[in-house]
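Not sure how to ask, but would you mind making up any protein sequence you like and the tokens describing how it folds?
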Amino acid sequence: MKMMVVVRRLPSTTITLTSAFSCRFTSPKFFPGQIIISSKSTPCYPRISLLATFCSASQVPDPIIEQDSSKRGPLKRGLYLVGTPIGNLEDITLRALRVLKSADVILSEDTRHSGKLLHHYNIRTPLLSYHKFNESQREQQVLRRLKEGEIVVLISDAGTPGISDPGAELAKLCVDENIPVIPIPGPCAVVAALSASGLDTDEFTFVGFLSKHGPSRRERLTASANEARTQIFYVPPHKFSQFLEESSLLFGDSRRCVMAREMTKIHEEFWRGTLGEAKVRFLNQQLKGEMTLLIEGRTNCLVETPSEDQLEHELGELISRGHTLSTAVKLVAEGASVKRKTLYSLALKKFGKQPEADDNSN
């Protein structure tokens, strides 16, 4: 019986053979770059082992990252914005892995979090923290390294950097300094949620995280409620109930919405219904994980003329938060099918002439 084993030649590789039969190298009629090992026609014993040991894992080329790398050529200098997984570590492109491995330094929002991703793919590029609390101090240091010709990669904890994450200001500085900014496309919670939402995808507005300042937050929601495009928000779990209360007041309980939570992870959840149903469904629930909430755009069939009591309630709430009467009328008029002149007359009748002090939302 003859047995043939083909072992590919690898750099700095030691091949150790342990067997219960004798081996010999054949005449050099084999493919370039390969070693062919065959056995003689000697009695074959059941206990045969072929052991290949390597000097170190780092010396073995990665078949995914390094395949045909010679055809791609070296990376040019500049700032690379690399999209990283929003949950599942498999959601990363081959190009992203190559760039991460080839960079001089990786700017990371949380080095401990990003370290898990790099360890998973055996990438040893140095990490440097870069987040909203230190980005102003890091900017000049990073610019200096870029001007010296280094390849700098920026990643966030999840998704595409610069989109509701640190990085936008650094990209602007690089553009001003004529330093190349190269996007490496990857996962993005906005697009992932929208594609699976079942809502209109032709036009949409990405709002992101709302302001912590009450009047500013309500002003943004009022503008969104009046748009015909799908509206997309990022909502922290501890703010979810507050968001549903405020948005249902302006969008209406009957407006359809989609809540996407823990996307690409084990407990991924898509909930679909109306804002009114969402308030009831999640009233006493403490959800975990940041959520992407999508609300359908305004259509003619959804336009309802609010009652006088509803208008008074909205006007009173805005005035109690520090808005002047004229500003409150303007904000309510933007989100309701009522003329501003009619609203102003109602406001004067209900609240009287208010002093036109500076609006604290400005």
Summary: The first strand starts at residue 4 and ends at 8. Residues 308-351 form one domain.
